[in-house]
């Protein structure tokens, strides 16, 4: 992991993680396995999730990070579940035939996930910027975080460059540098996530990052079925591809009438 900190993942959190992994207690034993796996939280992640929901921005990685802490706090239940619930029976060697290669895959997967996490964070700030007319300078914000913040990293310099090139950049994923970085890491990203799934290892943030990327990069999503379901059970109406902005209701059951609207008010 120390090697990771000499490349694109160079950051304060990677630095301290490498130190934690090596740290030994007074008995000369690694201390990390002795720490109880029940994480606490002060609320900053939850506040971000509240804001994301209020403004309708999919800040999924921070959300998953918060819920992962909540899950970890269910220690007694997890102890019971570990004895009652089945786990995948797999050949680890078959899934990870070469440990060194897999470590490289994980490194690239972490980098790609990190890009998505920051992209989501800047999406949230951009929406708040529009809502409150704040005139935020996102490049300056990235630069500010490099000084004394726990998320400080080399990576923030690349974010500043992206916003310096295009101050109204809709999403970091659309910047040439980050788009290429994702392209280069994508195969490893998918290998890391699918390997974790086969092994039964939870990777909520990394998996969520990949799911967001796949959703964001698709021209069409299955949300049309969701809209149809909402209209069926609640007459919430939906738009047709051929007439966006006009909201219609289908008489799914043969009872009741038909609704159209040019403003969503149902």
TrEMBL record:
GO terms for molecular function: phosphogluconate dehydrogenase (decarboxylating) activity. Transmembrane segments: none annotated. One of its GO terms (biological process) is pentose-phosphate shunt. It is an enzyme of class 1 (oxidoreductase). InterPro entries: 6-PGluconate_DH-like_C_sf, 6PGD_dom2, 6PGDH_C, 6PGdom_BS, Pgluconate_DH. Pathway: Carbohydrate degradation; pentose phosphate pathway; D-ribulose 5-phosphate from D-glucose 6-phosphate (oxidative stage): step 3/3. Its EC number is 1.1.1.44. PROSITE patterns: 6PGD. Keywords: Gluconate utilization, NADP, Oxidoreductase, Pentose shunt. Pfam families: 6PGD. It catalyses: 6-phospho-D-gluconate + NADP(+) = D-ribulose 5-phosphate + CO2 + NADPH. Catalyzes the oxidative decarboxylation of 6-phosphogluconate to ribulose 5-phosphate and CO(2), with concomitant reduction of NADP to NADPH. Homodimer. Belongs to the 6-phosphogluconate dehydrogenase family. This is 6-phosphogluconate dehydrogenase, decarboxylating. It comes from Dictyocaulus viviparus (Bovine lungworm).
């Amino acid at each position: 992991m120390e090697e990771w900190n000499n490349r694109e993942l160079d950051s304060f959190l990677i630095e301290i993680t490498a130190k934690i992994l090596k740290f030994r207690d007074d008995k000369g034993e690694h201390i990390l396995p002795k720490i109880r796996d029940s994480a606490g939280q002060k609320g900053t992640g939850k506040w971000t999730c509240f804001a994301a929901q209020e403004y309708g921005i999919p800040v999924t990685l921070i959300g998953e990070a918060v819920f992962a802490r909540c899950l970890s706090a269910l220690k007694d239940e997890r102890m019971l579940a570990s004895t009652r619930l089945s786990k995948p029976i797999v050949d680890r060697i078959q899934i990870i035939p070469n440990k060194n290669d897999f470590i490289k895959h994980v490194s690239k997967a972490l980098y790609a996930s990190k890009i998505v996490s920051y992209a989501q964070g800047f999406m949230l700030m951009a929406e708040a910027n529009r809502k409150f007319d704040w005139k935020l300078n996102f490049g300056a914000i990235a630069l500010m975080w490099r000084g004394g913040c726990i998320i400080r990293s080399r990576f923030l310099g690349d974010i500043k460059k992206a916003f310096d090139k295009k101050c109204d950049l809709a999403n970091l994923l659309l910047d040439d540098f980050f788009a290429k970085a994702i392209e280069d890491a994508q195969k490893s990203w998918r290998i890391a996530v699918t390997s974790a799934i086969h092994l039964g290892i939870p990777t909520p943030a990394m998996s969520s990052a990949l799911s967001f990327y796949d959703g964001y990069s698709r021209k069409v999503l299955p949300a049309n079925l969701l809209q149809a379901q909402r209209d069926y059970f609640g007459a919430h109406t939906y738009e047709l591809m051929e007439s966006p902005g006009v909201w219609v209701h289908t008489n799914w059951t043969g009872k009741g009438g038909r609704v159209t609207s040019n403003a969503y008010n149902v």
